[in-house]
Amino acid sequence: MRCRTIEHPETLKPETFFMSDIFEKALQAQTAIAAEAPATAEALEVFRIQYLGSKGLLKSLMGEMANVSNERKRDYGQLMNTLKQEAEAKFQSLKVTFEAQAQSVDSLALDLTAPGEPLALGSRHPIAVTMNRIVEIFARMGFSVADGPEIEDDWHNFTAMNTPEDHPARDMQDTFYVVDAPGMLLRTHTSPVQARVMQRREPPIRIIAPGRVYRNETISTRSHCQFHQVEGLYIDEGVSFADLKQTLYYFAKEMFGTTKIRLRPSFFPFTEPSAEMDIWLGTETEKNSRLTKGTGWLEILGCGMVDPDVLEMCGIDSKKYSGFAFGMGIERQALRLYEIGDIRLLFENDVRFLRQFEAAI
Ligand code: 2U9
After folding, report:
1. CA–CA distance, 324 with 200 (Å, rounded to integer)
2. Could you say which architecture CATH assigns to the domain 126-357?
3. Which of 186, 251, 318, 341 places its Cα 20 to 30 Å from the Cα of 257?
4. What is the residue with the minimal CA distance to atom 22 of ligand 1?
5. Which atom of ligand 1 is least distant from the CA of 314?
């Protein structure tokens, strides 16, 4: 905004013409300052140097004061003051704007030119790697994955699995019961998953149930109160022990590369007959000799033909259908596979331990 009107040079007397030239220069400076619009902090600094600096335009116009007649010195001084105020006001207001802008970027600590933070890639837990391998092998034989609750009821966990009321597994010493919910417990095996599928579906049933289970065990290097299992169940018309044997032989071959298995008679409340399966590792290497305690045979899993009572309790006609089941603990296999000396390492989530499995898929 201009605050003074200056006489046009033509209206001035000849001897004051030079003087009016000085006024004209000041007016041009005023117009130029008003038109300036520095868009960055750097452009604002150029503006400051150009107009307000010690060698700037306003300083040089002030120097013209000596050439202004005494009667116009006051006018010229006022014009200079106005000019200075306008230039300084523009400078100060833009300075505040640019500083605020710079601060808002700084307060985010955001350097848009900085290279990105690399995202640390995680790795699969050795238990997950082992479970996935097992699941993948059975998937190739047509088994699909079934899932169920980890907090189970007594019926699905024990009764449907033919485990009598007085069986030691039902004891509080061995099973975690939910204090505020009578009859509810942390599942001790993944068998209730299969029981629930049997209740819901007609055979053929060909499922694999991987998951976490809980038992009231004293924690040591070899046992823990939580561990993982993979159980499998195949029910159809005419399923025989030969099917069980061939399925588990294929699994052993794919998982461990072994060519020889053996089945030893055993007992489980939910299968009849029952067996334990060993794989042949031999005793040629020191490791295999140690793993098999010098026998060459390593126990891998338990299995058997599903007890007809279990089929009936879960709503399946045992005269029409038969089936086999198997179950294995994962931790034991992972400890062997990766030569881990202490089961607790698998549950502590210490990244110094877990990072060692980054190469495993
Ligand atoms: C249904 C019927 C039968 C699952 C089976 C085993 C044998 C077995 C143990 C291996 C080591 C448990 O983790 S472990 O301690 N399991 O030996 N499990 S047969 O039998 C079933 C499952 C579901 C309906």
Report:
1. 18
2. 2-Layer Sandwich (3.30)
3. 341
4. 191
5. 24
